Amino acid sequence: MPDDIEIRVLRQRSLGSARTVLAPLTGSEPVRSLYFHVPFCAHKCHYCDFYSIVDRQDRQAEFTDRLCRELDALAPLAGPLDTIFVGGGTPTLLAPHLWQQILERLADRFDLATIREGTGEFTIEANPETVTPELMRTLAAGGVNRVSVGAQSYDKRHLITLERRHDPANVARAVELARAAGIARQSVDLIFAIPGQTLEDWANDLARALALGTEHISCYALTYEPGTAMTARMARGEFAPADHDLEADLYEHTVTAVRAAGLERYEVSNFARPGAECRHNMAYWRQHDWLAAGPSASGNMGGHRWKNVPRLDEYLEGEDAGFARIVEHEPPEPRRNLAEWIMTGVRLSEGLDRAALRARAEAIEPAAVDRLDRALAGHDSHGWISDDADRLRLTDAGFLFADRVAADLMACLDPAHSLG
Question: pTM for this structure?
Fold first, then answer.
């Protein structure tokens, strides 16, 4: 495969630009969260289905200029920003002088007072190999106060399976460089249920990550997304996915180990010290509004969902007064909006407000409330739902079936759904 091939290209007809979606929303409640996507990677990992391209450093400057124009266009829709999150790709592959350009544009066009005061959150995802003292100092000076380091595993065998090309020792180095630069908050990402991984392997990975003393850790079960090289390899019989019982054991060990280290689960895959939850991701999961910039970035405002073109060439070439072309747009639709609220809310430890759930379901269709009650009674009989009268929360056992519970509740919004 050529190094410059662009991955996960969606060949869809453009629906116009994000301006078409956002222009009617001018004057709405200002948005307080921003996501932007940096698509460059040193290598495309086989399990990853996020949009990225292999970086030759020949388009970084052009991308940065284009991103800044999009930020200019989005700025009038934003209020004081509470959260910024930069994902990818590998955002830390961008050269420090280009990061300085982006950070200066953010400071010039957006109100970052909350972030500067420390009550807001500015997160950047980082690959351990790309973290340097100069880059961390540049980011810290520009307001970045949280870095999420993609460790995935400390076992070189499992890193090879995932096609991750970093030295496990550099995870601790990246965390220390962030701290030394004044980036006070750090998170570490790990993946479990990797083919060939044992409970002992996972316990060792988790112990090494927790030993860093970070305030946050994300532990994701390996998923086989359609269209990825890893899914194709599995289909060819090159390896078998982890056994479901082992995967459950790995997850249960995770919960026990992180609690012993003083972290609590606040979402199925995310654990933090009290008050150290990822505020930006909480905005997603609570269905708040956020603006989006960069190729393949998705935004949400006033119930409208849109997605920028997921191909760098098209992103660079096509713009409408700075706004990006889009390939997807979903206008507000009460049934879909409620389904998304259920899907994300069930996965949170805080759960869902039961009264709000019933009221929103009844507004769509009164019979949906009865279907929800029957579904919840079934899950309660399994011990998956807590007895909290005000909030719908999963128990420890229920978190193992969070996706199933969410799917069942979402299905109750469909008039054709039957539980009998």
Answer: 0.91
